[in-house]
Amino acid sequence: MPKLDIQISVEDEGWPDGPALLALGERVLGAAAGFLAKEEGQPFPDMAPELSLVFTNDASIREINAEWRGKDKPTNVLSFPAFPLEPGGMPGPMLGDIVIARETVEREAVDLEKTFEDHLTHLLVHGFLHLFGYDHMETDEAEEMEGLETRILAMLGLSDPYAGQDPIV
Question: At which positions is Zn(2+) bound (predicted)?
Answer without folding.
Answer: 126, 130, 136
